[in-house]
Design goal:
The chain contains one helix and no strands. The chain has one helix at 12-26.
C-alpha cells in the first residue's frame, strides 16, 4: 500500500490523483 502525504499548500484532490497514478504504476 502506498503512502500519500498532503502538503500544506496542496489540496486533498491533487494528492488523491497522484495516489491513483502511483497505484496504477505499481499495480
Amino acid at each position: 500500500m502506498s503512502e500519500v502525504r498532503v502538503g500544506k499548500n496542496e489540496s486533498l484532490d491533487s494528492a488523491l490523483k497522484r495516489f491513483k497514478r502511483s497505484c496504477q504504476r505499481s499495480g
